[in-house]
């Protein structure tokens, strides 16, 4: 198996095993521990050593892994950081979700993030996430669950009953989206179903208290195209960037200070304890460099690549892009720029990325949103503002962003990993 095939195989396995941020962080931490990283708990005292490699998580949905340089002071060299986010737009199950109508059992859901809702209809859906419960010892516990099998579906209304379905019908998130789970004579107890699922997985459960659960498409990630040049999957935005950062980190032979941070809640603004606008990185850097002057010098030497997928130009809707800034799949990673600081890229950080890409002959593209359209944003400006670190926003171009099934180019992810590996070897600026 070629290196590219092996990487794509690992990626497909990672995407399939990561229906929620909780599962993605579990998968990432497992690989880091297998590679020799030491797990630390934020509640404990730490003793960090030169050359040490460490990993922490917060809320089970955000993760930071870092390496202390062997022969250099962090105040003299800083960190080479790659940042991404673990969450994706989806449908979350409400706290009291049970609906019983005409003998059908359904669940109430709410939309998380800016989901493209149309593709959620008529898909084979399952349920995954984290459940908190009282165990048989009377203690509070939590565990991840994944129903794995298709257990739900959101059926479309037949065209005969909705003649305007192909003419721009709006989707009502409250009334159109409750999924169908089966038929029942009376309203079932959803928490009882969760208790059964937990006990089947070996947990000792007295009572289920609460949960953070999402619906997800059970269709596997897959290679698409006559030459398999595309990858189709759910949650490419932004698990693809998490995977690329992890691959580069694990493959790096750098002795510099390197760091990977993947935070939750980007799709809803990042303002949480586990989000990029929260204090997770700030708290970490305070523990790594307790002296404020040394910490400020460390951050002044540091630089971050904020990796979040970019809007590839769609051949059927090319007018939605600026004609000179329409990235094409498999033509290289994209530098994202915005005059109003929706992206954190500067001419200095952009030039550095181009230099690193040229070391492996990796092509680079640019994205600037049309001047008459609003621009999205990333963790880049947030992180840059929160900790004062030089930042560039980049991403792999993709189509169908925020759909239940997105599309990216296989060459782009391989090339981006190459640039990340060069970045991790970069000496102090």
How would you summarize this macromolecular structure in one to three sentences?
The chain is α/β, with parallel strands linked by helices and 429 residues long. The protein is built from ten helices and 20 strands.
Question: Secondary structure elements and their pairing?
Answer:
Elements: H1 3-16, H2 21-34, E1 38-39, E2 53-58, E3 62-67, H3 74-77, E4 79-85, E5 90-101, E6 104-112, E7 125-135, E8 140-146, E9 180-183, H4 190-200, E10 205-217, E11 222-224, E12 230-233, H5 236-251, E13 257-263, H6 280-288, H7 292-301, E14 303-307, E15 310-311, E16 334-336, H8 347-359, E17 365-367, H9 379-387, E18 390-395, E19 397-399, E20 406-409, H10 410-424
Parallel strand pairs: 1-2, 4-13, 4-14, 14-18, 15-19, 16-17
Antiparallel strand pairs: 2-3, 3-13, 5-6, 5-10, 6-9, 7-8, 7-10, 11-12, 12-20, 16-18, 19-20
Helix pairs in contact: 1-5, 5-10, 8-10
Supply the helix-strand structural class: alpha/beta
In the predicted model, the low-confidence regions spanning at least 5 consecutive residues are none
Number of helices: 10
Percent helix range: 25-40%
Give the strand order, joined by hyphens, for the main sheet: 1-2-3-13-4-14-18-16-17
H/E element order: HHEEEHEEEEEEHEEEHEHHEEEHEHEEEH
What's the alpha carbon Rg, rounded to whole Å? 22 Å
Distance linking N and C termini: 38 Å
Total strands? 20
CATH H-level homologous superfamily name of the largest domain: Zn peptidases
Shape: globular
Count of separate structural domains: 2
CATH topology descriptor of the largest domain: Aminopeptidase
- Assigned CATH class of the largest domain: Alpha Beta
GO biological process, one term: proteolysis
Protein name: M18 family aminopeptidase
Family: Belongs to the peptidase M18 family.
GO molecular function: aminopeptidase activity; metallopeptidase activity; zinc ion binding
